[in-house]
Amino acid sequence: MIKTYVYKYKLTTLTPVIISPRQNNAFYTDALIDETDMKYMNGYKIIYPFYRYGEYERFKPDEARYYIPGSSIKGALTAGMNEDNRKPLALFVDDISVDNNRIEIIALEKFQYASSLKSEPMGQIIPKFNTFFPGVGVEALKKGTELYGALRYEVDKSVEELFKGCGKRFKGKLERYKAQLEIYEGRLKDLAAQDVNANEAKNKTLQKIDDLLEYCKGLVSGENKEIYIFLGGFKGLIRSVVIGGSELDINKLDSAVFVSENNRPFGIVKIKLESRL
Fold first, then answer.
1. Do residues 178 and 217 lie in contact, with contact meaning Cβ atoms separated by under 8 Å?
2. What pLDDT, in 10s, does the model give residues 165-219?
3. Model confidence over 119-169: pLDDT tens digits?
4. Which positions ≥6 away from 122 have C-beta within 8 Å?
5. How many CB atoms lie within 10 A of CB 22?
6. Buried b (16+ CB within 10 A) or exposed e, 229-265
7. CB neighbours of 13 closer than 8 A, spacing ≥ 6?
8. Residues 205, 206, 207, 210, Cα dihedral to 10°
9. Buried b / exposed e across 200-214, counting CB within 10 Å, b at 16+?
10. How far apart are the first and last CA of the chain?
11. How far apart are CA 40 and CA 236, in angstroms?
């Protein structure tokens, strides 16, 4: 048996985190009879819940036992590691319980009609950020939530290096995301240049992309020594994996851009090693 040490670590959510079993456990207003259920739905027709212990026939978030699966955190720590480094890997991560008051129901925004920027001539439909399925709400872990967890890692490997490697891969993924936004920004500016009467929709979209870019630049800055992970869903393919190659081909790019209501990417979490227990 491989000997392990137990370590305590801290998570701080910088943006909302969505970890959901998706369609298998969705709650639908048409199936809810109890009026007390309806008041929680906030006008949504479908809600995808955050992970909960047990099975629930009713939504009732005040009775739910929320948690972050340890497997989700392990996946975030090891995503992008090559096979040589991952085998064998004695890393065991406990679930983390989440207080009910740290869960909120949010709508998703998506950069829609991006495909119109991928071809020449560019399409007439103006890409924009818009609500993704207006009738659908998703439970998310709130921004600014602080949680503590425990993990076990084999004694002959450095947990500090595990965290640093994860942080380095995070920056690589975020650089790709930033490059994706810069491509979209450039194409949108080309569209605006072709139309002297560039409308408000183009300007609002450009402003949102600029805001996202500034936020990303702060996270990948050389002066920023914090370690971050991507946790949960709705990250888009380009932030889920480390993509090889030095250039992004706009005509082959197929990665969704989802943002929260305050125009931030989902799932950005600061992780800090606290101590060995």
1. yes
2. 999 989 888 888 888 888 888 877 777 666 655 566 677 888 889 999 999 888 8
3. 555 556 677 788 888 888 999 999 999 999 999 998 878 899 999 999 998
4. 116, 187, 190, 191
5. 11
6. bbbbbbbbebbeebbeeeeeeeeebebebbbbeeebb
7. 141, 142, 143, 144, 145, 268, 269, 270
8. 130
9. eebeebbebbeebbe
10. 20
11. 28
Angstrom CA distances, 28 to 23, 43, 108, 122, 134, stand at 10, 11, 17, 39, 14
Handedness of CA 181, 184, 190, 194 (dihedral sign): negative
Token pair in block for residue 248: 């992004």
Q: Residue 258 phi/psi, 5° resolution?
A: -105, 145
Edge-first strand order for the sheet with 128-131 is 128-131, 109-112, 258-259
Which residue bears the tokens 């109890």?
A: 34
Predicted confidence at residue 246, as pLDDT, reads 46
Encoding tokens for residue 219? Answer: 């996270």
- AA identity, residue 202: K
CB-count exposure of residue 20 (10 Å: 0-12, 13-18, 19+)? buried
